[in-house]
Amino acid sequence: MLFLLFKHCGEAMGRRQTMMEKYKIQMKAYRKKRMKSDSTPYLPLEGIVYVIDSLDPGKKIPAQVVKTRVKSQRTVIESLACPECKNEMLWDDNWEAFICTKHGKKAIFELVV
Length: 113
Ligand SMILES: [Zn+2]
Fold this sequence. Notes:
Layout: H1 2-16, H2 19-36, E1 49-53, E2 61-71, E3 74-81, E4 88-92, E5 97-100, E6 107-112
Antiparallel strand pairs: 1-2, 1-6, 2-3, 3-4, 4-5, 5-6
């Protein structure tokens, strides 16, 4: 019964929304989503970093932090040593992962958080 009441109210409110209101709500949701999907690779407080190989997920591999920088009072990992060949891997925003290109095929290492 309560559910039906809620449903009814929701529908009534929906009908009263103008296009502008709908747009504003959508923009707000979009911005919230963008904030949430901040993929910045922050360094965990313990300083221990694990990655998983995107092509072979399942096992957590410890990775050595090479370079960090501070962004709004938090430490961000700039580069990690590749667990396979120790090459310095940089963060790739598009992949949202660290990429190593030094050994055969491209390796994509996602940060485990
Ligand atoms: Zn490598």
